[in-house]
Amino acid sequence: MHSRRSFTGVLLGLASSHSLPAAAAGPAWMGVAEGGELLRRKKLSPVEWAKACLDRIEKLNPRLNAFITVTAEQALTDARRMESEIQAGKVRGPLHGVPIALKDLIDTAGTRTTAGSKLFESRIPEQDAEVVRRLKAAGAVLLGKLNMDEFAFNFTSETSFFGAIHNPWELARSPGGSSGGSAVAVAAGLCCAALGSDTGGSIRLPAAFTGTTGLKPTYGRISCNGVLPLAWSLDHVGPMCRSAADAAIVTVALAGRGQMPAAETILRTRAKQLRPGVPRRLFYEKIDPEIEAAMDRATEVLTRLTQGVREVTLPELPMSQEMPIFSVTYSDIIMAEAYAYHERTIKAKPDHYDNRTRTTIESGARVSTPAYIRARRHLDQLRAESGKLFQEADLLITPTAPGAAFRLGDPPDLIYLRNCAPWNVYGLPSVSIPCGFTAGKLPAGLQITGPAGREDLVLALAHAYQAETNWHTERPAL
After folding, report:
1. Is 202 known to be catalytic?
2. CA-CA 20 to 30 A from 72: which of 113, 254, 330, 334?
3. pLDDT by residue (tens digit) across 342-382?
């Protein structure tokens, strides 16, 4: 068994050589692994780290609108307690004293959880969500609740009752959604990690648009208990960080003991053993040339790191007539389940919803019971047979999105979710990592998807790529 010192040493030794030293970057820019190591060596105080993040929140949140609620007083109290425990030699693990923030649909006892909606503007839960309990038990310092599209039912970060969220790379552009606040907080140095939720790309699209690392784990890997739902059958909770190494640490803590290999084991996996595959059909259609060029360069790197990248063919799913960018299975499930959750309140208080959210939710009433049952049966079948997708390759490589961040106020095409949503249907682990920039300095995202339960492979390849590139260390000028 590794000692705590050797554990963190492994993580730091595996970190990208392109990462800036903590002293040069400042506490607010440190990642989970490097900052956590400094905490345990008593070279950094949890209070100092929390204050650095809170100072940036105070300075930048008026422009970015990433946070809805900042729990500064509680965060500093918790940071002091974590510092006392470190001084007493009681370190809970790699998240001890680490500043993290939460998407505002994750319940926090005594702190309002709004889901970005007027309907829940003053809602204060009595219990923590399971992921919050696990973060607290791990010693994380929670900084507050992050802005999001109302009830997670959009991908623009413009439908929140608390106002639009702004992309730190260009304030006039969307950070993607619905976990826009989570992505922006990490990208802008307001916290070192955040939790988001993903029902059709809501972690991965914002990660791609903001140059961060966002993991949607296997369906059910991380508990959604205490997380306000969009669609129960498709919802996932996952970490948003600055690196795959950090995402591995957070994911292991959230999944629970014995559910995944240890983070250092994941990051030691040799990429040379892996066979990545690229399914070009569908996933590369109507792609922006600059995103395609970034993907081509990334594929060259992955070819060197692995057994070689090969083209593969995936089965095509029957597509929805109303929303042809989605499979009919995905469309019927998300619309029916969202309507089921909101049916009573949307009738009783329609004015408490954003018009765009209300219109979308109400359209779910058109999904018949037989259509929903057929979709659910097909979903179960696809998940049971998902291993067939990996007969020719161990992992699947695609662009996260076919374009870079669009402008706020410009109604985007659903095509931006096309490459993400299928993996919610299959329930497979999928991560978005930065792989370049457009000429306008907007990030491009690379998506790596693996077999059910193999977050270790997904994160191992993502980490190997980040050890060879420096895209994930780039920071917006704010």
Report:
1. yes
2. 254
3. 999 999 999 999 999 999 999 999 999 999 999 999 999 99
16 given a catalytic annotation: no
Q: In what order do the strands lie in the sheet with 236-241?
A: 67-70, 141-146, 99-103, 193-198, 236-241, 213-216, 430-437, 443-449, 395-399, 276-278, 310-311
**C-beta contacts of 157-160 below 8 A and 24+ residues apart:** 157/181, 157/206, 157/408, 158/408, 158/409, 159/116, 159/354, 159/356, 159/357, 160/68, 160/116, 160/117, 160/354
pLDDT classification of 25: cutoffs 50, 70, 90: low
- Most distant CA atoms of the chain, gap in Å: 62
Q: What span, in angstroms and rounded, lies between the C-alpha atoms of 274 and 5?
A: 30
Q: How far, in Å, CA of 158 to CA of 147, rounded?
A: 10
At residue 144, φ and ψ (nearest 5 deg) are 150, -165
For residue 19, what are its two tokens?
Answer: 């990462």
> In angstroms, what is the C-alpha Rg of the chain?
21
Q: How far apart are CA 138 and CA 365, in angstroms?
A: 42
16, 19, 103, 179: the catalytic one is 103
Cβ atoms 361, 338 nearer than 8 A: yes
User: Which amino acid appears at position 408 of this protein?
Assistant: L
223 is catalytic: no
Other Cβ atoms within 10 Å of 270 Cβ, number = 10
For 455-464, write each residue's pLDDT tens digit.
999 999 999 9
Tokens of 268: 């030691």
**Model confidence pLDDT, tens digit, residues 299-331:** 999 999 999 999 999 999 999 999 999 999 999
The active-site residue, picked from 117, 157, 178, 243, is 178
